[in-house]
Amino acid sequence: MPDSPSAATRSEGSSLIVMLVAAAFFMENLDGTIIATALPQMARSFGVHPVDLSIGITSYLLTLAVFIPISGWAADRFGVRNVFTAALAVFTAASIVCGMTDGLVSFTAARIVQGIGGAMMVPVGRLAVLRATPKDDLMRAIAFITWPGLVAPVIGPPLGGFITTYSSWRWIFYLNLPLGLAGIALAWRFIRAAGDTERRPFDGLGFVLCGLAGTAIMYAMELLGRVDTRWSQALAFLAVGALAGTAAFLHVRRTSHPVIDLRALRVKTFAVSMAGGSLFRVSISAVPFLLPLMFQIGFGMNAFRSGLLTLAVFAGNLLMKLVTTQVMRRFGFRSVLLVNGVLAALSLAAMSLLKPDTPYWIIVAVLFASGLVRSLQFGAINTLSFADVPKQQMSGASTLSSTIQQLTIGMGVALGAIALRVAAWLHGHGAQSVTTADFNVAFLLVAAVGLASIFDVFGLDARAGAHVSGHRTSRTEATQ
């Protein structure tokens, strides 16, 4: 009995820290897509083509992916509270600078600094939750942590559209100031200072090689999506990225303290979640970029109305969250990922059928259905990722997962721009002028990538992750 107050206090403190991390995760992901509906207005401010502003999204997301791998080392070296509050401060200050810029180059530079702050905010808190959570409670914990990341890309376009339509795109970034200051104060007050720190060596070579590989590949994809890029230039960056990636892979396998630990990839469920799951994230991440542009450039809507329509996706996400656990328990990971993966790809293909004269209720129905299936697929992938990872490998698995997730989100935005360029080429006109028909083809290309994500799921055992989902396989399933 005497221990109860102490236990209650620890529980309350832990819950508050989880909420802080979830809020930081929301801010981090919100700023990845909130500018999607503001791209036309921002393009006019900077004097560039709207599609070229995709670099404002991808540079931020790429920086997250490059710097997330060192977040664990930084937390061990300098303490969780110090790293978390410093990251919030950098993120908030860079947000203000983003709102003050007047050119694409300065804006992109500010977004990179903002991404450095964002990269340090979430992974440490996520790892703490993963280490403290029993396997049978993992589904609830993962859902709580990933929910902000799922909601933010959907909330971002309508919120950005509202701000852009009735004020200025600059206020998208200025609003981070009160949120960031509140987060800094709460984090410093409630996150306990570390009693000691771990001085493990920093894998500088691994960090440089991984960063070079990710940056070169992402920039190559960005170039492929731009209207004035030469193919030879983009292919050169792809080659550099491939060489750096190969060197990074060989290096991290040999070093004793790698910046990215690849051991978790030996776990089948984790490997599937990283491979097929990455293709799914790429396809889904193209949607927040393509939809607002199609509604505004193709359909002639204003930014606010365009953003409001995307709330239908959020409604589908919200409704599916209420039954995700029951669906997983009834059908298991393998069946859900296969069947729902096909439905998710079909929902993307259905967006290619939308036209300027399509009734609003049909548009809403298509987006709502897409929200249902993408929420279920995300929930299954994110939970399965850590279902079988041993506790001692959880740190490396969390860092690797966070890095890959951010890379694939950035690749999704680049994929949307590339798909538009390919569509314009197929229709025989320049990419400077984008038509509704181009968006229709682009969504079909994105849907094909989404469909490809299910193929490695066929290799999963029917009982995969059953100890997490609670699914009981039949004797027939178990022998397949």
Folded structure, characterized:
- By secondary structure, the protein is mainly alpha-helical.
- It folds into two domains: 410 residues, Growth Hormone, Chain: A (Up-down Bundle); 56 residues.
- 76% of the residues lie in helices and 0% in strands.
- The protein is built from 22 helices and no strands.
- The termini are far apart.
- The relative contact order is 0.13.
- The N terminus is likely disordered.
- It is found in: Cell membrane.
**CATH architecture call of the largest domain:** Up-down Bundle
Distance between the termini: 51 Å
CATH topology of the largest domain: Growth Hormone, Chain: A
Low-confidence stretches: 1-13
Largest sheet: none
Number of strands: 0
Q: What is the C-level CATH assignment of the largest domain?
A: Mainly Alpha
Protein name: Putative transport protein HsrA
Domain Major facilitator superfamily (MFS) profile: 17-465
GO molecular function: transmembrane transporter activity
Transmembrane segments: 16-39, 51-71, 83-105, 111-129, 141-159, 171-190, 202-221, 233-250, 270-291, 303-323, 335-354, 360-386, 407-427, 439-460
